[in-house]
Amino acid sequence: MRKENSVFRTKFISEPGCYIKNQDYFAFVELEDYACYCIADGIDEDLNRESAKLAVTSVITAFHENPGCSKRLAKHYMQEAHNELHRESKEARLEVSMVILLTDYKKALWISAGNTRLFGIRHGNIKWKTKDTSLSQGMADKGDIPLDQIESHEERHNLYCYLGQSGRFQPVTYKKRKLEDGDIFVLYTRGVWESVGDAELLDAIEGASDPESVCTGLEEVILSSQQDIVENYTIVSIFIDKIYRNPRAGKQKKYMKIAMAVFGIVFVLLLTWGVVRYNQNKSNLETMNKSLANAVDYMEEDSYETAIEEFKKAYTASEKVKLRKSSKKYKKIELVDLYYKMSLNLEEARTAFQEGEYKKSYNKYGAVVEKIEALKKQEEKITFGADIEMLEKYAYEMQQAETAMEEKNYKVAAKGYGEAASLADSIDATTEKNTAEEKAKNANGSLAVKNGDESKAEGEAKMKEGEYQKALNSFQTARNFYTSAKDDYGNQEAADRITELDIRIEDANNKVEKQTAEELENEAEKYEQAAADALANGDYDTAQENYDMAKKLYKQTGNTDMMAQMDTKASETESGPASEASEKALAALLSAAEYLARADYGHALANFDDARKYYEEAGMTSESNRVNNIITQMSGMISG
Description:
By secondary structure, the chain is of the alpha+beta class. The chain contains 22 helices and eleven strands. About 65% of the residues lie in helices and about 10% in strands.
């Protein structure tokens, strides 16, 4: 009935531009009492699934099943399309930008998500237009950039709401508008508005007698813009020549006026100060409760910035509520105040973290944890507390690591950053994890450079003492450290050191090669004496090392007798007190294993400690360190 007594004319153009496939899609249906127009732009990279067509088809199907023109139904249609994209996102996520226009031939409303746009034109002027759900639009709304720069701004395609997204989906709905004869609606995708501004749109409409002229006029603007790449573009033009008018509207208006007059009198009589106050309190309470619930939901989703904004809204509403402190509802206001203070601490903690002030961040996260504990005592069900506690520990590890870096204790710093990265990974805090891993990489690089510098210094000392073989060994060790710093950790400082060190290695090699047999024998005797001195001091590892060095030098001179003597002395060193101590260590380890098998952890720890001491006595540092690591791990397990 309504369609027959109204005139709506619709035309559209949809082209792929420079691409093989067109990712845009448009469809509409005009039923007896309602009409639906739906335009979509596929913004994913799956060229096989036609996500825009899938989403539009879902909207049209939902409209057929339950036609209407209301905000509730508009949200329902778009939600159905959003759900369908999720169901079909098997190999890759399907994503779509969309606008839906609904009308009952007298009024119209629309809903949007993404940066597909709708314009309503009346009397040659743009009366209504949608807003993009993009970062650029948000910046323009805040006044950070001019409105006319959105079309060219670098963040214009950075969307925070679109069909197929993960998390909370909240499209933008617009209130219902009364239509007039001569109104025009134009809908188009990003391939159009990046080339067509408001002025070009009005020029195309001026003097146009039919919707097809508008579409072709806008297409000419796109094709004449001389872009290197023409994106997919879809243009829809809807001319409303005549809206539906109810033939009984005159009588209804008369009855409505009488009813309104009576209602007005009654309303004035009932409008007392108490009613106004009650309604205001009710509205503020509802706003407070809704914002608080939203804030808690956002906290559970780790959307901390949005949660903080919602806590602020809840607190602002709570300040306007007038209640007796003895009332039950007043307790909710106290809870809002506590949540709000917690959100302020959280905001400070995150700001401090972003600015690299980890000590302050740690303290503020600690304050958040305290507020959470206070909320739990008020019987609030807090599910996000564990993540906040993890962030508190993360900030602590980062602060400790930063202090170690300042003190050039790179080993401790690298360990701290690694611990922080593991904590962030456990709660999927990607930004925090990446920051910690990058800092750990830098710390490890600095540690490798430091170790290289120390080995190089040892080599220089040995060169001055004429111990060229030892110098060569130290230089080669230093080079290994520098190479690791450069290749494994990206430390560019190490590259220059390698170049310089290669010269010293070549020099040491030349010194070794040029030594005469007599010089080699003299140097070998020095090592032999050094070994004897170390042996006298109970330093068996150093003695062993010097005997080996002496043997290498005797080998270069061909002195097989002295080589044999060095082997004998080295063997005697191995079978000395160090060997006896290592046997005791092995016996202690076997005893520890037996106690572990019986779950007697106390005696097991005691035997591990005995083994560590025996290895230290034997000068077997690496074995002592390994046993010490076992003791540390077991102690942590027992205390945990």
